[in-house]
TrEMBL record:
Pathway: Carbohydrate metabolism; galactose metabolism
CDD domains registered for this protein in UniProt: UDP_G4E_1_SDR_e
Cross-referenced InterPro entries: NAD(P)-bd_dom, NAD(P)-bd_dom_sf, UDP_G4E
Superkingdom classification of source: Eukaryota
Family as reported in the entry's similarity comment: Belongs to the NAD(P)-dependent epimerase/dehydratase family.
EC number: 5.1.3.-
Cofactor(s) required, per the database record: NAD(+)
Keyword entries, A-Z: Carbohydrate metabolism, Galactose metabolism, Isomerase, NAD
UniProt name for this protein: UDP-glucose 4-epimerase
Molecular-function GO terms, alphabetical: UDP-glucose 4-epimerase activity
Single GO BP term: galactose metabolic process
Gene Ontology, cellular component aspect: cytosol
Enzyme class: isomerase
Length: 350
């Protein structure tokens, strides 16, 4: 197969940077774009270093997806075989406070991307959706056929973009679109050189645990220990970010299938892990004690969410390889080497 050239939006972000690296190592040519709203240029520099000789197949442009002229220029200079679309805002709480920001950034950014892609005849897309579209699932594992709902404006942007994708494909069957519903991405590249570096107070479990381990926060607040789960704490499907990145390469391969239209796949491990089990695994991997503060349930949280992985295994020929031990090992390797993230400085992180 001839070398493919892929545009990655949000390529400096957590999942984007790991995916760009896996693409380069897999022989793809990659152009990444990002506005650094929630990321750092250092991530791009480190991806280039990790890619070694493959870095010659990589270029980066700083732009906001809503800047149609800038995006158009990128498409005018390069012919893309497909786009992987990560760029978006993702903080649930912030989306409740600033819904218009989320609708503007996530929806308008995606619509402009669609318009520019269509204008340049590139109609192959992989989109970052989320398990959040299952809302509060009545049962587990979540299959792709489950009813969809959104619990907050962030989730609504994912649901709306999924609907936009289905409508775009119904209107023009030249479009081939794969919607990937990620469960809970954690961990970091095994080199410890790239990883997740959230701005401000982390919203998600593992970035918070990691900041407690390096002494940036005194204790982890456990949101709820009265769920109907083995130890009372919430259960999720944590997936290693490198497995997730590889899932995108499987999706790109699937886009070659002439029968593909607009198709959706869960990317998870199919295994549920509680908050306390995850903390224990991290303590084992890091040798650090994580002090806990028990608190009430976080509003909006579901008790148990994990994926059915059958469809992705069957149709994408992809399966997660890593377990929570490896996720925690790599998360700790990244955290211990970069306790203050990419900035490296206590003063520029909070
Ligand atoms: P991230 O914030 O690290 O990466 C997103 C990147 O997009 C950032 O680098 C940000 O600067 C960039 N960006 C945002 N708006 C942009 C715009 N208008 N123009 C250009 N760049 C823009 O987040 P992530 O964890 O890597 O998530 C990537 C995608 O996966 C997001 O769409 C997110 O909603 C989705 N997702 C993430 C998770 C998760 O838990 N991390 C779970 C499910 C789905
Ligand atoms: C996991 C578990 C918490 C933090 C969120 C988004 C979802 C998706 C993934 C993007 C829960 C508990 C957490 C803490 C805790 N993102 N927890 N103390 O809620 O499954 O999903 O990220 O699409 O849309 O909602 O992930 O990591 O926030 O929480 O006890 O400080 O950890 O209650 O049981 P969640 P999470």
């Amino acid at each position: 197969m001839p070398t493919q050239t892929i545009l990655v939006t949000g390529g400096a972000g957590y999942i984007g940077s790991h995916t760009v690296l896996q693409l380069l190592l897999g022989g793809y040519h990659v152009v990444a774009v990002d506005n650094f709203d929630n990321s750092s240029e250092t991530a791009i520099l480190r991806v280039k270093e990790l890619a070694g000789e493959f870095a010659k197949n990589f270029s980066f442009s700083m732009l906001d997806l809503r800047d149609k002229c800038a995006l158009d220029k990128i498409f005018s200079t390069t012919r893309f075989d497909a786009v992987i679309h990560f760029a978006g805002l993702k903080a649930v709480g912030e989306s409740v406070e600033k819904p218009l920001l989320y609708f503007d950034n996530n929806l308008i950014g995606t619509i402009i991307l669609f318009e520019v892609m269509a204008a340049h005849g590139c109609k192959n897309l992989v989109f970052s959706s989320s398990a959040t579209v299952y809302g509060w699932p009545k049962e587990v594992p979540c299959t792709e056929e489950f009813p969809l709902s959104a619990a907050n404006p962030y989730g609504r942007t994912k649901l709306m973009i999924e609907e936009i994708c289905r409508d775009v494909h119904s209107a023009d069957s030249d479009w081939k679109i794969i919607l990937l519903r990620y469960f809970n991405p954690v961990g970091a590249h095994p080199s410890g050189y790239i990883g997740e570096d959230p701005r401000g107070i982390p919203n998600n479990l593992m970035p918070f645990v990691q900041q407690v381990a390096v002494g940036r926060r005194p204790a982890l607040t456990v949101y709820g220990n009265d769920y109907k789960t083995s130890d009372g704490t919430g259960v999720r499907d944590y997936i290693h970010v490198v497995d997730l990145a590889d899932g995108h390469i499987a999706a790109l391969r699937k886009l070659q299938d002439p029968k593909i239209g607009c198709e959706v796949y869960n990317l998870g491990t199919g295994k549920g892990t509680s908050v306390l089990e995850m903390v224990k695994a991290f303590e084992q991997a890091s040798g650090k004690k994580i002090p806990l503060a028990m608190a009430g349930r976080r509003p909006g949280d579901a008790a148990i969410v994990y994926a059915s992985t059958d469809k992705a295994e069957r149709e994408l020929n992809w399966k997660a390889k890593y377990g929570i031990g490896e996720m925690c090992r790599d998360q700790w390797n990244w955290a211990s080497k970069n306790p203050y993230g990419y900035s490296g400085s206590k003063d520029s992180s909070n």
